[in-house]
Automatic annotation (TrEMBL):
Location of the HTH tetR-type domain: 22-82
Keyword terms of this UniProt record: DNA-binding, Transcription, Transcription regulation
Gene3D superfamilies assigned to the protein according to its UniProt record, in alphabetical order: Tetracycline Repressor, domain 2
DNA-binding positions: 45-64
Organism: Cryptosporangium arvum DSM 44712
Protein name: Transcriptional regulator
Molecular function, one GO term: transcription cis-regulatory region binding
Length: 201
Protein backbone atom coordinates (compact mmCIF):
# COMPACT_ATOMS: atom_id res chain seq x y z
CA UNK A 1 0.00 0.00 0.00
CA UNK A 2 1.37 3.42 -0.94
CA UNK A 3 1.85 6.18 1.63
CA UNK A 4 -0.90 8.19 -0.06
CA UNK A 5 -3.33 5.26 0.08
CA UNK A 6 -2.46 4.69 3.74
CA UNK A 7 -3.13 8.33 4.59
CA UNK A 8 -6.41 8.14 2.71
CA UNK A 9 -7.48 5.07 4.68
CA UNK A 10 -6.69 6.76 7.99
CA UNK A 11 -8.67 9.83 6.91
CA UNK A 12 -11.64 7.66 5.92
CA UNK A 13 -11.56 5.89 9.29
CA UNK A 14 -11.34 9.21 11.13
CA UNK A 15 -14.24 10.61 9.12
CA UNK A 16 -16.34 7.52 9.83
CA UNK A 17 -15.61 7.76 13.55
CA UNK A 18 -16.49 11.44 13.56
CA UNK A 19 -19.77 10.76 11.75
CA UNK A 20 -20.61 8.06 14.27
CA UNK A 21 -19.71 10.36 17.15
CA UNK A 22 -21.93 13.13 15.79
CA UNK A 23 -24.76 10.67 15.12
CA UNK A 24 -24.58 9.31 18.67
CA UNK A 25 -24.57 12.82 20.13
CA UNK A 26 -27.60 13.73 18.00
CA UNK A 27 -29.47 10.61 19.15
CA UNK A 28 -28.77 11.43 22.80
CA UNK A 29 -29.86 15.05 22.31
CA UNK A 30 -33.08 14.00 20.56
CA UNK A 31 -33.92 11.47 23.29
CA UNK A 32 -33.23 14.00 26.05
CA UNK A 33 -35.36 16.65 24.37
CA UNK A 34 -38.35 14.33 24.01
CA UNK A 35 -38.09 13.07 27.59
CA UNK A 36 -37.74 16.59 28.98
CA UNK A 37 -40.77 17.64 26.94
CA UNK A 38 -42.79 14.81 28.49
CA UNK A 39 -41.61 14.85 32.10
CA UNK A 40 -39.18 17.71 32.62
CA UNK A 41 -35.76 17.42 34.21
CA UNK A 42 -37.18 16.42 37.60
CA UNK A 43 -38.67 13.21 36.22
CA UNK A 44 -35.96 12.37 33.68
CA UNK A 45 -32.77 10.52 34.58
CA UNK A 46 -29.56 9.93 32.68
CA UNK A 47 -30.49 6.24 32.61
CA UNK A 48 -33.80 7.15 30.94
CA UNK A 49 -32.06 9.21 28.28
CA UNK A 50 -29.38 6.59 27.65
CA UNK A 51 -31.98 3.84 27.27
CA UNK A 52 -34.06 5.93 24.86
CA UNK A 53 -30.95 6.73 22.79
CA UNK A 54 -29.80 3.11 22.79
CA UNK A 55 -26.52 3.77 24.62
CA UNK A 56 -25.14 3.03 28.07
CA UNK A 57 -25.03 5.66 30.83
CA UNK A 58 -21.24 5.46 30.58
CA UNK A 59 -21.43 6.39 26.91
CA UNK A 60 -23.81 9.24 27.76
CA UNK A 61 -21.21 10.80 30.07
CA UNK A 62 -18.57 10.63 27.34
CA UNK A 63 -20.71 13.14 25.45
CA UNK A 64 -22.43 15.28 28.09
CA UNK A 65 -21.62 16.12 31.73
CA UNK A 66 -25.28 16.47 32.78
CA UNK A 67 -28.73 15.57 31.46
CA UNK A 68 -29.47 19.28 30.99
CA UNK A 69 -26.39 19.67 28.81
CA UNK A 70 -27.74 16.98 26.50
CA UNK A 71 -30.81 19.11 25.84
CA UNK A 72 -28.69 22.25 25.44
CA UNK A 73 -26.49 20.82 22.69
CA UNK A 74 -28.38 22.95 20.18
CA UNK A 75 -27.30 26.13 22.00
CA UNK A 76 -23.65 25.04 21.96
CA UNK A 77 -23.88 24.35 18.23
CA UNK A 78 -25.36 27.80 17.71
CA UNK A 79 -22.61 29.54 19.66
CA UNK A 80 -19.95 27.57 17.79
CA UNK A 81 -21.44 28.60 14.44
CA UNK A 82 -21.43 32.27 15.45
CA UNK A 83 -17.82 32.09 16.68
CA UNK A 84 -16.70 30.63 13.35
CA UNK A 85 -18.14 33.65 11.55
CA UNK A 86 -16.76 36.47 13.69
CA UNK A 87 -14.10 38.18 11.57
CA UNK A 88 -10.57 38.60 13.01
CA UNK A 89 -10.21 41.90 14.82
CA UNK A 90 -13.97 42.39 15.12
CA UNK A 91 -14.72 45.17 17.60
CA UNK A 92 -18.11 46.55 16.59
CA UNK A 93 -21.77 45.74 17.07
CA UNK A 94 -22.25 45.29 13.32
CA UNK A 95 -19.44 42.70 13.20
CA UNK A 96 -21.08 40.53 15.85
CA UNK A 97 -24.60 41.10 14.55
CA UNK A 98 -23.52 40.13 11.04
CA UNK A 99 -21.84 36.93 12.25
CA UNK A 100 -24.95 36.02 14.24
CA UNK A 101 -27.28 36.66 11.29
CA UNK A 102 -25.09 34.53 9.00
CA UNK A 103 -25.19 31.70 11.52
CA UNK A 104 -28.99 31.91 11.76
CA UNK A 105 -29.25 31.78 7.95
CA UNK A 106 -27.09 28.65 7.85
CA UNK A 107 -29.34 26.57 10.09
CA UNK A 108 -32.06 24.26 8.88
CA UNK A 109 -35.70 24.69 9.87
CA UNK A 110 -35.35 21.58 12.03
CA UNK A 111 -32.44 23.09 13.95
CA UNK A 112 -34.29 26.37 14.53
CA UNK A 113 -37.36 24.46 15.69
CA UNK A 114 -35.17 22.67 18.26
CA UNK A 115 -33.82 26.01 19.46
CA UNK A 116 -37.34 27.26 20.10
CA UNK A 117 -38.38 24.02 21.82
CA UNK A 118 -35.42 24.21 24.17
CA UNK A 119 -36.16 27.86 24.90
CA UNK A 120 -39.81 27.07 25.65
CA UNK A 121 -38.88 24.13 27.88
CA UNK A 122 -36.56 26.37 29.86
CA UNK A 123 -39.41 28.73 30.67
CA UNK A 124 -41.13 25.97 32.66
CA UNK A 125 -38.14 23.97 33.91
CA UNK A 126 -36.02 25.69 36.56
CA UNK A 127 -33.11 23.22 36.31
CA UNK A 128 -32.87 23.55 32.55
CA UNK A 129 -33.24 27.33 32.70
CA UNK A 130 -30.46 27.56 35.30
CA UNK A 131 -28.10 25.45 33.19
CA UNK A 132 -28.97 27.46 30.07
CA UNK A 133 -28.19 30.71 31.87
CA UNK A 134 -24.83 29.32 32.98
CA UNK A 135 -24.07 28.34 29.40
CA UNK A 136 -25.07 31.78 28.12
CA UNK A 137 -22.88 33.45 30.75
CA UNK A 138 -19.95 31.20 29.85
CA UNK A 139 -20.31 32.04 26.17
CA UNK A 140 -20.60 35.76 26.92
CA UNK A 141 -17.36 35.64 28.92
CA UNK A 142 -15.58 33.83 26.08
CA UNK A 143 -16.85 36.37 23.56
CA UNK A 144 -15.79 39.24 25.82
CA UNK A 145 -12.26 37.84 26.13
CA UNK A 146 -12.12 37.46 22.35
CA UNK A 147 -12.98 41.16 22.01
CA UNK A 148 -10.47 42.37 24.58
CA UNK A 149 -12.21 41.76 27.89
CA UNK A 150 -12.85 45.41 28.73
CA UNK A 151 -16.08 47.25 29.54
CA UNK A 152 -16.69 47.99 25.85
CA UNK A 153 -16.50 44.27 25.04
CA UNK A 154 -18.91 43.37 27.83
CA UNK A 155 -21.48 45.97 26.78
CA UNK A 156 -21.16 44.90 23.15
CA UNK A 157 -21.67 41.20 23.84
CA UNK A 158 -24.52 41.64 26.30
CA UNK A 159 -26.28 44.17 24.07
CA UNK A 160 -26.19 41.66 21.24
CA UNK A 161 -27.53 38.94 23.56
CA UNK A 162 -30.56 41.14 24.31
CA UNK A 163 -31.19 41.57 20.58
CA UNK A 164 -30.92 37.84 19.94
CA UNK A 165 -33.24 36.85 22.79
CA UNK A 166 -35.78 39.48 21.73
CA UNK A 167 -35.66 38.24 18.14
CA UNK A 168 -36.05 34.60 19.21
CA UNK A 169 -39.13 35.43 21.27
CA UNK A 170 -40.67 37.56 18.51
CA UNK A 171 -39.96 34.92 15.88
CA UNK A 172 -41.43 32.12 18.01
CA UNK A 173 -44.62 34.14 18.60
CA UNK A 174 -44.98 34.89 14.89
CA UNK A 175 -44.47 31.24 13.95
CA UNK A 176 -47.00 30.19 16.59
CA UNK A 177 -49.57 32.44 14.93
CA UNK A 178 -48.90 30.93 11.52
CA UNK A 179 -46.69 33.66 10.09
CA UNK A 180 -43.89 32.49 7.80
CA UNK A 181 -41.29 34.55 9.66
CA UNK A 182 -37.57 34.30 8.92
CA UNK A 183 -35.46 34.28 12.09
CA UNK A 184 -32.42 35.92 10.49
CA UNK A 185 -34.67 38.65 9.10
CA UNK A 186 -36.36 39.18 12.46
CA UNK A 187 -32.95 39.36 14.13
CA UNK A 188 -31.67 41.93 11.62
CA UNK A 189 -34.79 44.05 12.12
CA UNK A 190 -34.35 43.84 15.89
CA UNK A 191 -30.71 44.93 15.58
CA UNK A 192 -31.75 47.84 13.36
CA UNK A 193 -34.19 49.05 16.02
CA UNK A 194 -31.59 48.58 18.73
CA UNK A 195 -28.97 50.41 16.67
CA UNK A 196 -31.32 53.35 16.11
CA UNK A 197 -32.28 53.44 19.77
CA UNK A 198 -28.73 53.39 21.13
CA UNK A 199 -26.82 54.67 18.07
CA UNK A 200 -24.74 51.51 17.85
CA UNK A 201 -22.27 50.74 15.08
Amino acid sequence: MSARASIGSVTDITSLRERRRLATAAEIEAAALELFACGGSEHTTVDDIAAAAGVSPRTFFRYFPTKEDAVLGVKRDFYAAVSERIPPGAIGFDDLAGATAEALESFSATFLHRMVRVRCLGEHDANLRHRALLLDAEQCRQRQRHLGGDMHARLLVETLAVALNTALDDWAIRRHHGEDADLAGVFRATCAQQRALFQLG
